[in-house]
Amino acid sequence: MAKSTKTKETPVEETKDQTAEEVKAPDKSPNAVVKAAAGLNVRVGPHKSYPSMGILADGTQVEILELPGGVRVPGWYLVTAPDHTGWVDADFIALPEAE
Fold first, then answer.
1. Is the pTM of this model over 0.85?
2. Are 37 and 56 in contact (CB under 8 A)?
3. Measured torsion, CA atoms of residues 66, 59, 90, 52, in degrees rounded to the nearest 10
4. How many CB atoms lie under 10 A from the CB of residue 2?
5. In terms of CB atoms within 10 Å, which of 26, 48, 53, 62 comes out highest?
6. Which residues lie closer than 8 Å to 85 by C-beta, 6 or more apart?
7. How many other β-carbons are positioned within 10 Å of the β-carbon of residue 40?
8. Each residue's pLDDT tens digit, 8-56
């Protein structure tokens, strides 16, 4: 005879729907500048072994994108610029000064 097993029901946490006021739209203004006299490679992944998809000129304004879950990749930023979105070496990005 098969032994019956009872499973405990786990309560599901209810969440309310968020309204437009509660969801902050991301700021799309540039928040950093490329500082690389010879230009900066934009790569398809966060390592120099990944291929370059283009070069950002010195002085190009870029937006540093946030990764899901607050993940950080040491030494690299995921950025978007007018012609490219990809990974750049953080050593060649100037961040705005804190006010």
1. no
2. no
3. 90
4. 4
5. 62
6. 42, 65, 78, 79
7. 24
8. 454 444 434 433 333 333 455 569 999 999 999 999 999 999 999 999 9
Place of tokens 């900066």: 40
CA 91 to chain centre: 17
If you search the block for the tokens 């804190």, which residue do you land on?
Answer: 98
Long-range contact list for 77-82, CB < 8 A, 24+ apart?
77/32, 78/46, 79/32, 79/42, 81/42, 81/56
Q: How far is CA 92 from the centre of its chain?
A: 17
| Cα R_g (the chain), whole angstroms | 22
Element containing residue 98 per DSSP (H, E)? none
Tokens (6 digits) for 20: 């437009």
